[in-house]
Amino acid sequence: MARRRPDVRAADPLNAIASAESPSPPPPRLRAPRDDRRCSRASVSAPSPIRPCCWRRSSASAGCWSLLVANTLYNLSTRQIQVGFGFLSREAGFEIAESPIVFDPSNSYGRAFLVGLLNTLRISALGIVGATLLGTLIGIARLSSNWLVARLASAYVEFVRNVITELLPPVREAIAFGDLVFLSQRGLRYAWPQAAPGWSAAGWAFAAAVVLALAWRALASRRQRATGAQWPVLWPSLGLLLLLPVGAWLAGGAPTQVDLPRLGGFDFRGGRSLSPEFIALLVGLSTYTAAFIAEVVRGGILSVPRGQAEAAMALGLKPGQRLRLVTMPQALRVIIPPLTSQYLNLTKNSSLAVAIGYPDLVAVANTTMNQTGQAIEAIAILMAVYLAISLAISLMMNWYAARTRLVER
Predict the structure, then answer these.
(1) Phi/psi of residue 182, each to 5°?
(2) Which of 55, 113, 268, 327 lies 20 to 30 angstroms, CA to CA, from 236?
(3) What is the mean pLDDT of residues 181-203?
(4) Does residue 260 form part of some domain?
């Protein structure tokens, strides 16, 4: 079209004069090509931290570590401290107030570390169970439609406090629950059956009843998923837990000998006891961690879409059934990851037992370091033990999370 048709404006004299008088537009400015990769890196990536010059090269880093190790070995040799774990076979020479196994000062440091490890595992396991139960109940209570229950649960989470042992009554004014349990500043003293074949048989029968009750529950759940028929679970389980131990106790001669605690002098005698340090640590860890677990549970329940609960309500499920069958299975996917962190925090916080005199692993390690001077080895044992416990908890929780994961069709 441009070649066939001449320019009409150029043929018109008026247009030619106007175009000659009007200034021509300035030529476009030439810009340097833009480096998109550099701009994208500058806008996305964060500046790398500045490292000292001595750490930028691997050779310099290796030299610094070699100097540190050589200096440590020189200081140990000048103080005549032998490096190694041979001290674990030497006699400990100190007592441990609370031990789940037999221990006396003539035993080795290795056995003392074993006692501390067992105490740490016991307080951690019981604290996890107590914090989980209490935290779950409080987390569900915070979402209750009852105004008083929800406010009390919120007040617990916001204002939870630990009760110090000095507030417990003295021995002569101990809180008594019949003649079986006494709570005082000396700890918790409770009755315990004396050694007899009937009591042992009842204990083993109770353990077998627990296994059978769990197996019955699994069988009932599998049957319900396959056919839709619901088998009773609660009453058969209670029957197993009650009748089987009682039957074993009667078959073993029905012993009635019980070691009752009695006040003698300035302390109780007889029965079994839990030290006030153990009670204070267990209650403190459980109540403190339960406040965080309650928030984890509440957040997990709120993450479930509201339509799920409404659909369960439309099916005629009761509130307890809606929570157990619909809400909690879906909330577990959100609850388990932060719950694992709380379990790890509780296990590590159990090392605070050294501040109240409970003989856990850290307390035994401190005593060992003071007597032998093997600080590096003791700290290495602590690091290895707590790392192993943390990895074991993470492994079990990851396995449980994989089992509760919803499979999409």
Answers:
(1) -135, 130
(2) 327
(3) 70
(4) no
Which pair of tokens denotes residue 398? 């990851």
Question: Of 165, 167, 186, 193, which is closest to residue 263 (Cα–Cα)?
Answer: 186
- Distance CA(320)–CA(234), nearest Å, equals 14
CATH code of the domain covering residue 316: 1.10.3720.10
Residue type, 43: S
Residue 302 lies in a domain: yes
Count of structural domains within the chain: 1
CB atoms within 10 A of CB 347: 22
Question: Does residue 398 lie within any of the structural domains?
Answer: yes
Contact yes or no for 123/289 (Cβ under 8 A) = no
Can you give the residue range of the structural domain that contains 288? 109-172+275-404
In a domain, 34, yes or no: no
- What is the value of pTM for the model shown? 0.69
Name 267's bridge partners. 264
Kindly report, residue by residue over 49-89, the tens digit of the pLDDT.
565 655 566 777 788 888 888 888 788 778 777 778 888 88
Residue 274 φ then ψ, to 5°:
-120, 130
